[in-house]
Amino acid sequence: MEIIDLNSEWQFARLPENEFVPGSSLPFETVSLPHTWYKDEDRYHGKAVYKKTVRFADKNKRYFLDFKAADQKSKIYINGKPVCEHKGGYSAFRVEIPEDAVKKGEAVIEALLDNSITPDVIPNFGDFTVFGGLNRGAGLIITNKDCFDRSFYGTNGVIAIADVLEDGSGCVRVRAHVKTEKEALCRHILKDENGKEVAECIVSANDEGSLRVKDPVLWNGKNDVHFYYLYSYLMADGSEKDLVKTRLGFKKVVMDPDKGLFLNGKRVRICGVAKHQDRAGVFNAVTDEMLDEDFDIIKEVGANGVRLSHYQHPEKAYDRCDEDGLLTWAEIPMLKMTENPELFANTEEQLKELIYQNIHHPSIFCWGIQNEIGMFKDAAFMHEECKKLANIAKSLDNTRLVTAANLLNVKPESGLNGVTDMVGYNLYFGWYYGKMQDYSGFLDDLHAKRKELPVGISEYGVDANIRLHSKEPHVRDYSEEYQALFHETVYPIFLSKDYLWGSYIWNMFDFSSDRRDEGGVKYLNGKGLVTHDRKTRKDAFYYYKSMWSDEPFVHICSKRFANRTDSTIDIKVYTNLKDVTLFVNDKNTAEITKIENGTALFKNVNLKEGENLVKVISEKCSDEAVFRLCDTADESYVLPDSGEGVVRNWFIKDEEMVREGYLSILDNIQEVLESAREVLEKYIPDMIPLFDNDVIPQGLSLKSVIEKRFADMPDTMLDINKELNEIKKP
User: Which end of the chain is more exposed for a tag (fewer CB within 10 A), N or C?
Assistant: First the structure.
């Protein structure tokens, strides 16, 4: 097998109005892959064409076009003829070059892409940008005529699953998919990291093989990353025709609803982060080098798990998860489930692609089948389709767990909590609703009502703009200080719950969301611990480093909050050390010997006029910052609207709206529609069709949807809430 890079010199053009005619003349420009046409100032959704001529030196070979991703729908034409259609922007797919094109010696490749959001392809909704483009590159795979089928679900044609059996032995089950008209055999050889052969089997080309290892060295997360290598040979006419090499690892993951996750028999709490693929400037057209930087930052913070959300990520990302020992949640982009049969079919196909293409990665311990579909409604058809998805996952891979991410309005009793082996909840107390401390009661209630269900946190976090600061941080001020306070308050709550399998922070990095305009920034979800360009680690990053990392460090918080008007301030330090010492303008202050929750707090530190150099020093490391005592407050630290962005608490406190056991505007739209539809018809009749037709998610709180409408009429909001307070909850 030979692989030729096809990333250079593609011709690219948009088709904003015209239908595509193969071979037509268009205003092409030359681009290199990976490529996206998305720009924040030009958020084009529609069709575009990529074009390239490929030549074939040996007409006795097979040639497969390898597209790592094509966002979001694609049709591939070769010499003007349609040869492939692919729906889904995040999985790889391969196209075999037709024999007549190979004999001709060259082929004109035209890829028609469309990144429009449509009802038949997932994601059909989401709080992230669908960019468009050939954003992960392309290649040409050259094989003999007799070969493993490189077009089978975008794989190399060899599907291998490593498992640990009850007796502790290892078993690799392998099935090959081949292209040959001859009688052929598959010879599978398993080798350890030293190249020593440990198992072998020979089977007919279409049969499943099994290789046993008596005492396998296990892939054990960050404690011990260990791999095996499967060499699969296709044999025909007494000779080797093709070879595929697959890296594997043996592990055993078990979930206990009361004790959490066990990796190879040992309790492990997932200390995880979630990530999207994009970054500033290049958006989804990231390079391998950029991905390496991402995972180096994840390694720095000390995480032991990653949720690769909300879609299939580049293969390089799963490779790094394997190599870094990160327990990985892999998922499909099912975020809004409708009763559209075409959407069902596409969802099932994307799940198969995700599993077939990544089943060999030892870091993956669960397959995610949906994220927050309950945001729109919680309906019986959703439960049934999720059961089908779970069954597909189990039929393809019975060694891993199936999971899903639900949100606040999905009640413990919901059927969405009865489909998967485990569940995560995306919870935003202290940001979109409630108080930070509310996590404790909600989680305990969920665990008490679903004792059989392993539960963890799949998302939690708040937005922070590194330009915004507050000495008294509060919800929705978008300050770096509130984000830090949130995480140091909430994370210990999770640690106190032994039944939780762990948590994934939302998010490791700020990411693009073209539906957003808040916190002083457009088109960005700012919940990352690190900025979109990866240049700045926010203070909250260092809180988690203090909790997770063994690398000695100290970090002075609020460095960017440099200009102060108070002559006495508190200085907070994050560290994983036992003691640190503070110096202000080279004067030694009292040494801190008691550090709790990764935090040392120096209270009432005096500042002189002008600049003050603050240093924190330990035996192993140090940090410093400059704080300036100014006469006037720096207005750039606060948003013009007093820092409340678009997630406002307009005029009344949440707790004042609630009557225990009765409805309020804090309840989700679905609950209000079911029990108090007449109230909505009285005050907002024009919005009823938007709720009924899933234009506005029914899982949102009524208050979050209508508060802007009645911002200048608070009495109307109070009237709605007053009437709801008279209606008992079912």
Answer: C
**pLDDT reported for residue 593:** 63
What is the per-residue pLDDT for 641?
62
CB-CB contact of 369 with 351 (8 Å): yes
CATH code of the region 563-636: 2.60.40.10
Q: Which two tokens stand for residue 597?
A: 């929750």
H or E segment at 190? strand 184-191
Backbone dihedral region for residue 396 (phi beyond 0: left; psi -120 to 50: alpha; all else: beta): alpha
Helix 288-301 with 539-548: angle, nearest 10 deg: 60
Token digits for 180?
A: 């040959």
β-sheet bridge partners, residue 273 = 306, 505
Kindly state the DSSP code that residue 662 receives in the 8-state scheme: B
Tell me, what amino acid is at 365?
F
pLDDT below 70 — which residues of the chain? Answer: 590-593, 641-655, 711-712
Residue with tokens 């193969």: 22
Instruction: Give me the pLDDT at residue 646, please.
Output: 38
pTM over 0.90: yes
The answer to whether domain 158-248 has CATH 2.70.40.10 is no
β-sheet bridge partners, residue 380: none
Beta pairing class for 266-267 and 270-275: unpaired
499 contacts: CB under 8 Å, gap ≥ 6: 257, 258, 259, 260, 447, 455
pLDDT given at position 697: 85
To the question of domain 267-544 being in CATH 3.40.50.1580, the answer is: no
- Residue among 155, 164, 139, 146 nearest 216 (CA): 164
Among candidates 131, 154, 119, which has minimal Cα distance to 48? 131
- Spatial strand order of the sheet with 266-267 comes to 253-256, 260-263, 266-267
